[in-house]
Amino acid sequence: MAMKSTIPSRLLPRDGRFGSGPSKVRAAQVQAVADANPTVLGTSHRQAPVRGLVGDVRRLLAELYRLPDGYEVLLSNGGASFVWDAAAFGLIRDKAQLAAFGEFGSKFAASVCAAPHLDEPTVHRAAPGSIAVPVLEAGVDTYAWPHNETSTGACAPVHRVGEASEALIVVDGTSAAGAIELDPTQVDFYYFAPQKSFASDGGLWFALTSPAAVERIEHIAASGRYVPASLSLADAVTHSRADQTLNTPAITTLIMMRAQLEWMLDQGGLAAMAARSAASSTAIYEWAESRDFTSPFVAHRAHRSPVVVTVDLSDDVDSSQLQAILRAHGIVDVFAYRKLGRNQVRIGVFPAVATADVEALLACIDWVVDHR
Fold first, then answer.
1. Which of 27, 178, 281, 317 has its CA 20 to 30 A from that of 271?
2. Which pTM value belongs to this model?
3. Domains of the chain, each with CATH number or no CATH
4. Distances in Å between the alpha carbon of 63 and those of 67, 201, 266, 268, 352?
């Protein structure tokens, strides 16, 4: 289709960043980075200024999630994808069961399947746009799945599996953390990267970790199993407790994350952040169901993500052209996940994104389609 290229300025959002990661960064976070020079930037991560910064982030995360006694916040170098291999070396004892219903879940499953020291895992798969969930199985010591699939916009529940009291629950929370409510007692190792709801950059991973998970990590480390130093969860425990990381962390990432956590808590905490994202995503789903050229990609309402919304477009609306026009007006990163190969838009609505801007985005899409 041919589409006119000039959207009226009155329709444009105040901030046009709707990426699914990295996400919108608030101006106050950028200012926090500037304010940290020279007191924190350019100083050793073994010294008090940076260790204090790491300690602040760990403390604020624990406060945001109201972590139970004994739970710890771990962090280490690398993004959440590092955890897939780290878990295969240092968290899964023998046999895992994994639910894979998108790109990240599938990659975690591939890492575990390839680990020669582990038993063959059980993998439950579902087509993109739907979810797979774990089921109780004898002999499984670790159940793992994504909370929210960034690639597909599908969201799965987080809870313990049946009566598997000794099995660990390991959940990828990368695009859910900070925007979807969670009962931390239902999970043992909830890991995520900071570039989505926490509006920071990549390069680190964090995990909300139960005493049972720490015990498993320490048991495996003492067993003599080979674990590469960069993937050692036992080292992550030791360094995290000292408010450090194995190697120099991304300092600006930590500064921006601290500023975002302070904002989240000041605005009302996790429940308030979840409400912000839910208001934005609800606006998109209702819009998608009311137009003749759109439909939500995730058909089952209960499985629809409140933070990443994927919307299929009819064949007469070219997603590439639509995105190009939006980008020319400062509305960026609403593209579909590349491996899905679908004619759709994908909209990130993490807490920093204002619902009013989401509504403006939808008005812009309507305008472009109406002026074909």
1. 27
2. 0.96
3. 9-25+270-370 (3.90.1150.10), 27-266 (3.40.640.10)
4. 7, 21, 12, 12, 19
